[in-house]
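Proteins fold reproducibly. Next comes an illustrative record:
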Amino acid sequence: MNKLIFSILMLCVSPLWAADISSCTLKKEEDQKNFCKASFAGSGTFCDMIRNGELKRECTFMVIRIQRDNSYKVKPYTKEVVATE
């Protein structure tokens, strides 16, 4: 019974947290829209379109952090051993 309640709850609540780059088009201000796009894309191109200097700086540092996280999170190499008989 608990699994059923949990499943129903997750089906109803999970779309509330779902967001993607298309949700950025709903923002009214262009600077906020470009900041939102940069946060999803991890691209400095959208940061360059921001006119507010403070928001542009914050956006640039955010994109650098996203890019570093993506590039340095490399999975360790594991060698697979195939047994031959």
